[in-house]
Amino acid sequence: MTSAARTFAAISSPAPPPGNPVRLERAVVLGGSVAGLLAARVLAEHAERVVVVERDPLDTGPVARRGVPQGRQVHALLRGGAQQLERWFPGFADRAVAAGAQRVLPAQQALYADGVGKAGVSQVLCATRPFVEHQVRELVRDLPNVEFRTGRATGLEVSGGAVRAVRGESGGVGFREPGDLVVDASGRASRVPDQLAAAGWDAPPLTRQATGIDYATALFRRPPGQHDEHGVRVAAALVSPGTGSVLGGGAFTPVEGDRWIVLLAGYGTRPGGTAEEFVRLCRRDLPAPFGRVASNELLGDVVTHHQGDSRRRDWTAAARLPARLLAVGDAVSSFNPVYGQGMSSAALHASCLSAFLRSGADLDDPARRFFALQRVVVDAAWTVSTGGDRARTGVPPRGPERLAAGLLGLVVDATVVDPVVARAFDDVTQMVEHPATLLSPGVVWRSLRARRLPRPRPVPPLEPAVLPGPTALPARGAG
């Protein structure tokens, strides 16, 4: 096992964090999304007072927020993220299920690649993003030393080589929040790097990987007592280029409120922008369970979202950084959402924060030990998501990446017929194991052997003409 894989295993462990906690008087977190909330949970073990500064009101319940423009799309809480939530909030999953989240077993899942299906291997917890964020927020709100402040951070106050306070504005009135430690969790559009550069420090270099992906998401009624569609309760499908479809893939899960949530994704296209097109694509271009789910009553409008690229800021490469400043979540790395890595990455960043604050690090030095730990998590997620994006955008891998990409393709192909390889691959995509574990001799050997095994037949789409109901559309070829 590589050193990166061992480090990742230590970070992702569900065991209580070891080491002696550093003590702080005050800590400030910029951003109240999942990454900021989890950072606040960790800091609550170290600081007498933790202040979360968020521009959106956080007393509105489980509803989509302006600061999370992708919040109404399908979100996945991967197994690695779920383990970390249980680590920081014991009993989180049971609490979420009691409030309406859906727990789905592997036998109720189906994963399709160009229609060829395989069973799931991990239990999953299904809910909308606003629901999950609300559950986390309420647990953080219960912590006696955490408070929320509605406002917009406008700058950092740096003196003596360290960040000392956050300046901000709320309702037209300026404020200053002092802090022994400041954590930037303000998201993909964080202004902290620009503020550092303007003050003479080094901004972390930014890398972009084009995705060109568009999403469309719709909610459908799930009749009481209807738990699955012919045995399938969670489905994800990938569609290769050249199949004649405008889709790159799709997914559906049951969520709170007796609803199905369905996502369609397209590369270089905008699929499913209207209700009629959305239902038609589910029935025509994806395996039959998608069409059956889309035969239910549509609730509300189809919601679209575009993300042009994945981004990562390499804080380890910034030569001059002030002390007492960290960054987590999308402020460090944001990925193609089709891989579902966002919330789970944020949870693992929180565990990096915990390990750093229990490592005996000197907070008067730049937090390079933290950023080195965090980079292991970022590298793991980046390898999985951008590998697929490069293949779709025609960017060929180079040098060692070419061999790794070839082996990864071999592994992915074997997951359809070899359950051991499927489990190893699932551990990586669920952010429980590091991608390097897929290059072990045992996994590679089984993947090579799987090339000789018979392949299952594709699952056909549902014929539009057989679906009744108010959302029914003409059959293909009809006027």
How far apart, in Å, are the first and last alpha carbons?
60 Å
> Order of strands across the widest beta sheet?
5-4-13-14-15-12-16-18
SS-based structural class? alpha/beta
Task: Profile the largest sheet.
Answer: 8 strands, mixed
Mean pLDDT: 87
Percent in helix? 25-40%
Count of helix runs: 13
Content of β-strand: 25-35%
| Poorly predicted parts | 464-479
Radius of gyration from CA coordinates? 23 Å
Count of beta strands: 18
Keywords:
eight-stranded mixed beta sheet; five-stranded parallel beta sheet; alpha/beta; 479 residues; single chain
Polypeptide structure, described:
This protein has helices at residues 3-11, 34-43, 79-88, 92-98, 129-141, 192-198, 275-284, 288-293, 342-357, 368-393, 400-414, 419-429, 441-450; strands at residues 24-30, 47-54, 102-104, 109-113, 116-119, 124-126, 146-150, 152-159, 162-170, 173-178, 181-184, 206-221, 234-238, 249-255, 259-267, 298-313, 325-327, 333-334. 31% of the residues lie in helices and 25% in strands. The longest helix is centred in the C-terminal third of the chain and has 26 residues, at 368-393. Helix 9 (342-357) runs antiparallel to helix 10 and helix 11 crosses helix 13. The chain has an eight-stranded mixed sheet. It has 13 helices and 18 strands. It starts with a helix and ends in a 29-residue tail after the last helix. With 479 residues, it is of the alpha/beta class. Residues 464-479 have low confidence and may be disordered. Strand 1, helix 2 and strand 2 form a beta-alpha-beta unit.
